[in-house]
Amino acid sequence: MASTNANVWGLHDPSLIKHQSYIDGKWVNAKEGGTILVTNPATDEELGTVPEMGLEETKSAIAAAGKAFASWGKTTARHRHHILMKFYSLMQEHNDDLARIITLENGKTLTEAKGENAYSASFMEWYAEEAVRTYGEHIPSPFTNIRNVVIKQPVGVVSIFTPWNFPSAMITRKLGAALAAGCTAVIKPPPETPFSALALAELSRRAGVPDGVINIVTTQKNVVEVGCEMCESNTVKKVSFTGSTPVAKSLYGMAASTLKKISIEAGGNAPFIVFDDADIDQAVEGAIACKFRCSGQTCVCANRIYVQSSVYADFASKLAEKVAAFKVGNGLDETTTHGPLIHERAVSKATRHVEDAVSRGAQVLVGGKRVDGTGTFFAPTVLSEVPAGALFDVEETFGPVAALTKFETEEEVIALANDTNVGLAGYFFSRDVGRVWRVAEALEVGMVGANTGLISHATIPFGGVKQSGIGREGGHGIEEYLNQKLIAFGGI
User: Fold this and answer.
1) 183 is annotated as an active-site residue
2) Partner residues linked to 378 by β-bridges
3) Confidence of residue 6 (pLDDT cuts 50, 70, 90)
4) Do residues 337 and 436 make contact, with C-beta atoms less than 8 angstroms apart?
5) Which of 263, 377, 395, 424 falls 20 to 30 Å from 206 in CA-CA distance?
6) How far apart are CA 365 and CA 445, in angstroms?
7) Is 299 a known active-site residue?
């Protein structure tokens, strides 16, 4: 039976910690009794276990969602608005506890975790308002006796797959849109950070979300069969995924078997460009916000930093000075600026990227190695003189490593920035208004930060091009969960 170590959480409301999956309004264990151990990446301390669900439980969750859709899909937009706003209020009310859960299972600092909860809650607020804005359309007919009306209806049951780097926000960015549209959902959270998802399920119950509308299936070793069922079931009408490009391709193939609607936000390899006319201090702050947030574990993190030769030395020295002042440690410590990486594989990847760059002639200005001791910490790192062909060019590091490369011309750096199969986000700093327009339009990405390293909030269309995904979340993302239906009225 799944369990939790109550002593480690320290919550004002301990009932937010759930150690069972949530199916059809009930907290349930795995039928075969298997569990998944969850640990704190900063301390290696055991936080508890959650059920190792399998195919049978997944089918039950999908069936529950299908049954609930029959009534939830017919509720009014105003009714759904009120429930989502209650959900939003509960997330605000429990901000401290929800943030602490994020920090304990993910490792990010408590300040970042509170920011994530606020960001996560904002999707519920935004989509509550979007629910009542799902307008239809009247289309003039070429025939005098026909009137054309387009209405929008919920897709149906949605399968949601989320990553560990934003354990709460990546759920609400999808779930908020789905609920607002009138869809029901089956959610598979990551095994590294399931407790945030389960806490949200508890709050959804308190907010008045009916049984079966939200279902959560936790799994690790059974992920293939669970994922396959969530993608191929005829009851499921849409799949939404955030994670790596290879996994996205696999799920896309499964969903294609029944031609489901699909939204994918996959990997990135974001360029960050500093031109010689940039405000260097502003660019440094932008790079810190963009590259080192969540210890470099975000899909929109700068992965390749290109600096024009005439300002390269100034930018590199100022960035290294700032990074050297970071304090790595337990996210619950108020003096900590950066937490651990999520697991040993992440540390190994960061190490491999640094060693590869150094072997090609790069210089370590700050950090460059694992931090000794308990936990999966990697020192915030700045590398200079990183040559073309390094692993940073072809792989997303997902760690606190800033790789600096020198360039000479605008044309050269645009070619470098676009020389990748993915295109999620890109950033650049320049005070030349003409260049700002040229570069923003030339970058082959779905989102551009011009003179800013922060681009994410609930009201914008978040997503990429190339192999970084399909569709958009946030903004008018509710449209991804709606079908258009034409009604042609004749005999007039």
Assistant:
1) no
2) 370
3) low
4) no
5) 263
6) 29
7) yes
Token look-up 């760690």 returns 399
Give pLDDT tens digits for 261-289: 999 999 999 999 999 999 999 999 999 99
By CB atoms closer than 10 A (0-12, 13-18, 19+), residue 444 is middle
Cβ atoms 414, 444 nearer than 8 A: no
CA 234 to chain centre: 26
Burial bucket for residue 197 (CB in 10 Å: 0-12, 13-18, 19+): buried
Report yes or no on whether pTM surpasses 0.85: yes
Which candidate in 183, 231, 294, 299 is catalytic? 299
Residue 7 has what pLDDT?
75
Alpha-carbon gap, residue 270 to 444, rounded angstroms: 10
Q: Determine the Cα–Cα distance for residues 356 and 164; give it in Å rounded to an integer.
A: 26
Contact status, residue 87 vs residue 94, Cβ threshold 8 Å? no
- Dihedral sign from CA coordinates of 324, 330, 335, 339: positive
- What type of residue sits at position 233? S
Nearest-angstrom CA–CA distance, 71 and 443: 45
Using an 8 Å Cβ cutoff, are 29 and 56 in contact?
no
Residue 3 in this model has a pLDDT that exceeds 90: no
Buried/exposed code over 19-34 (b: 16+ C-beta within 10 A; e: otherwise): bbbbbbbebbbbeeeb
Going across the sheet that includes 236-242, the strands are: 26-28, 21-23, 214-216, 184-188, 157-161, 236-242, 261-265, 469-470
Q: Check 112, 125, 229, 265 and give the catalytic one.
A: 265
Query: CA-CA distance, 441 to 165, in Å (whole number)?
Result: 29
C-alpha dist (Å) from residue 191 to 98, 140, 335: 18, 52, 28
Two structure tokens written together for 416? 């470098």
Rounded Cα–Cα distance for residues 88 and 478 (Å):
17
